[in-house]
Design goal:
Layout lengths: L1 H34 L3 E10 L5 E10 L9 H9 L3 H22 L6 E5 L2 H4 L3 H12 L7 E6 H4 L4 H13 L2 E7 L8 H4 L4 E4 L1 H4 L6 H16 L3 E5 L4 H9 L4 E3 L7 E2 H12 L2
Parallel strand pairs: 2-3, 3-4, 4-5, 5-6, 6-7, 7-8
Antiparallel strand pairs: 1-2, 1-8, 1-9
Helix pairs in contact: 3-5
The structure holds ligand C2E and calcium ion (CA) (3 copies).
Organism: Leucothrix arctica
Protein name: GGDEF-domain containing protein
Length: 279
Amino acid sequence: SKQLGKNTFSYYSKELHEEALRKTSILTGLKDAIEQESFDLHFQPKVNLSNGKVESAEALLRWSRDNPSGFMPDEFIPILESTELIHEIGKWVIDEACRVCKKWHDAGFDQLCISVNVSSVQFMRNSFKTHVFNALKKYDLAPEFLEIELTEHVLIQHNATITAQLKSLKDLGIQLSIDDFVTGYSNLSYLINFKVDTIKLDKSFILELNTSKNHFAVVKAVIQMAHILNLNVVAEGVETTAVRNILVNLKCDFAQGYLWSKAVPEKQFIDSLESFNKV
Ligand code: C2E
Ligand code: CA
Ligand code: CA
Ligand code: CA
């Protein structure tokens, strides 16, 4: 009825208003957090499923100080992306990841790779590749140890700046990985048009692997396709040995998830690595 429609409308407008207020207050907190350097990177191991060794780590951003509400990246990254701040924090993430990776190499783990997440808006700016070059140079890190995780969204834009930057990053020797694979646009032509190295199966598929025939079928088909195209496959969100065993049988190359470790601070990561890889 009319009455109900009106109530529904005011309900939504109130909700939108609260959402806007919430966003504004997170944004104010984020600006302070950037000034105060209240962010850290945490690291989650990527395990080679053929030998059980940790060969790489994904760097995940944490707002670890002055974050009373405990906001996680899924909440605050989209807000950063809607402002200029994503470029500033993104630059810091690349620099910090290269610094830490070099530190691990100096500590004797000299084959460890590091992955960073990069938003599509970051690729829109030509200065992005310069930040990457500068960070690698600053820490004297070889480009093949750095992997960029990007989403399908980046590759379907047909944007000249993005295409040129991806090409120069690949020419330099950086690894490219497609994150959240299968949940995006399913236009696979970019797998042929861009020099991609790895695809990362989204955790929404991996979590269902041992309970849903359909999820299993998709994961199996993706791994087979990837191997024909000479791509590595990483499964994210591996929480149980049942799922790990299925992935081993499907010849999935790498996996990450709570079964091994959540993302942890730099020091804890390197300590756990000692026990992991020296068994
Ligand atoms: P993502 O890149 O898909 O990262 C995977 C997310 O799954 C991470 O959440 C990770 O902590 C979580 N995860 C890892 N293992 C498991 C598991 O076994 N089970 C479950 N249920 N979850 C698991 P997180 O750290 O909260 O990050 C969320 C998203 O925020 C990331 O998704 C990524 O899109 C974005 N993000 C994180 N750090 C950065 C960054 O430095 N820059 C940009 N642009 N985005 C970032
Ligand atoms: Ca990722
Ligand atoms: Ca992902
Ligand atoms: Ca994601």
